[in-house]
Design goal:
By secondary structure, this protein is mostly helical. The chain contains 13 helices and no strands. It starts with a helix and ends with a helix.
Length: 286
């Protein structure tokens, strides 16, 4: 065995060993959460990684034993699902329309708008959350699920860059032929571009659905009435970790974490092919 072959083999082994260690550290909390969701003991047990007794008690209590404090998981799930679906529809529409305009239309100030959009997208959204809260409060939209939909959807058009890159890969001759036949820009967008853009549409829809589904910070600030039936899943599960409830609700918290991850996992498994194609297709051009 040559020295070069030995070094390449050693480098390969070390890289994958490092990745394996990272994967183990990443998976341990997930396994611990799943195991505790099936624990008969409903409190927090830090002395044992594997529970002594397994049961479905936490799932039964989470779904059917509701009260007016922190155990309203079915209502939280419904609230989060409604917010995520409406946000997904509005945000996806904004992103696709803005991306098409930036990709196919030529107008004064286009490049400036694109640059401003990219720069604004570099700033995390929570920097503006206090200003957004006071604006929404002045319109009476705090403690409102529709107010959250507006917040999640309002700046979604700034995420146009990947979809624009995908639209850039679609031949311009298709649009020119449609214009010669008398088609409007809206007809070209709906009847030519959209049918050819399934991968980027799937990517956009999943990304738009993920934002409200997993968000905690904006939801916590906006839904501050203290009424449990108004909360989203993220707020509800967080409140289960309060020191008043953690010794009786921790297993239910773990069960809720498992149930929340199931829809996203199923969605990714079904749409994985198109999701990857959307990312790679949108990365070809910028």
């Amino acid at each position: 065995m040559s020295k070069k072959t030995f070094l390449n083999g050693a480098s390969f082994t070390l890289r994958h060993l490092f990745l394996l260690i990272l994967a183990i550290f990443w998976l341990i909390p997930i396994f611990w959460l799943v195991l505790n969701s099936f624990s008969e003991f409903q409190g927090l047990n830090m002395r044992q990684f594997i529970p002594e007794e397994f049961s479905l008690t936490a799932y039964r209590l989470l779904l059917f034993d509701t009260d007016d404090t922190v155990a309203r998981f079915p209502v939280w799930f419904q609230n989060t699902l409604i917010i995520a679906i409406f946000t997904c529809f509005v945000s996806s529409s904004f992103v696709l329309m803005v991306s098409y305009a930036m990709s196919r239309m030529r107008f004064r100030g286009r490049r400036t708008l694109m640059s401003v959009g990219v720069i604004l997208g570099l700033f995390p959204g929570f920097l503006a959350m206090i200003a957004v809260y006071f604006i929404m409060r002045s319109f009476g939209l705090t403690n409102s699920h529709w107010g959250l939909v507006m917040i999640y959807s309002g700046s979604s058009g700034l995420g146009y860059l990947i979809a624009k890159g995908f639209f850039d890969t679609i031949s311009e001759t298709l649009s020119e032929s449609a214009r010669i036949d008398g088609a409007t820009e809206f007809q070209i967008f709906m009847k030519i571009i959209i049918p050819l853009s399934k991968p980027i549409i799937v990517y956009t829809v999943i990304s738009a659905f993920l934002a409200p589904w997993a968000d905690f910070m904006f939801a916590r600030i906006m839904l501050n009435s203290g009424i449990a039936t108004d909360w989203t899943v993220a707020i509800g599960l967080y409140n289960m970790l309060d020191r008043t409830f953690i010794n009786s609700h921790f297993a239910r918290f773990c069960a809720g974490g498992v149930l929340v991850s199931i829809p996203l996992s199923v969605l990714f498994v079904i749409m994985q092919k198109f999701y990857v194609e959307g990312i790679t297709g949108g990365a070809v051009k910028g």
